[in-house]
Amino acid sequence: MGTKTVIAADNREWQVRRNIEWSTPAMGDEFEHDVDGGRGAVVLVIASLVLFWVLVLVWTPSGVYVPWFYWIVLVVGVGFFPARWYLRRPWTIVAKTQGSYELPPEHWTGMVRGGSAAREETRVVLRSLRTRATPGHADSPLQPVN
Asked: How far apart are CA 21 and CA 32, in angstroms?
C-alpha cells in the first residue's frame, strides 16, 4: 500500500502506511524462542506432498472411478491452508510526522492480523488524526516509538 498523507487537527502533516509482513517478527520475550524452518522447510514439505499425490494418481488402477465431488473436496482441502495463511498474515501500520515548530516529531507503529483488519485500522488511524491529532487511542494497536 502507498503512503497516505493526512493533515491532523493540530495542522501537522502525518504519513500513514501499512505493509504486509511475510514472516512473523519476533517481539520481546519471543526473540530467543523464535524458530523458523525457513524457505527450505516449506519447499521440502510442498515437494513431499506433490510427490505423494503424483504417486497416488500414477498407481491408481485404471478401473477406479473417482466421483467429481471428491476432486472438489481435494481442491478445497489443498487450497484452504495457503489461503488461510495469506489472509492471516500480520500487517504493520506506521504513522509518523516530522513535527512542527511547537510540537516534536512522532513515530507510531503497531501490528494487526489480516488484510481487512489492517484496512479498517488504517481508516481508524486516519480518522483519529483528523479529529484528535493523535493516531492512537485506548485500545489501539499503535504505540509510540522512541
From this structure: 19
Strands 90-97 and 106-113: antiparallel
pLDDT at 29 over 60: no
d(CA 127, CA 110): 16
pLDDT band at 28 (very low <50, low <70, confident <90, very high): low
φ/ψ of 19, rounded to 5, equals: -135, 140
Question: For the whole model, what pTM was predicted?
Answer: 0.69
Q: What is the pLDDT of residues 99-125, one digit of tens each?
A: 778 888 999 999 999 989 999 999 999
Backbone φ, ψ for residue 105 (5° rounding): -65, 150
The DSSP string of 48-112 is HHHHHHHHHHHHS-TT----HHHHHHHHHHHHHHHHHHHHT-EEEEEEEE---SSS--EEEEEEE
Phi, psi of 67 (to 5 degrees): -60, 155
Side chain identity at residue 123, one-letter code: R
- Angstrom distance (rounded) from CA 8 to CA 101: 15
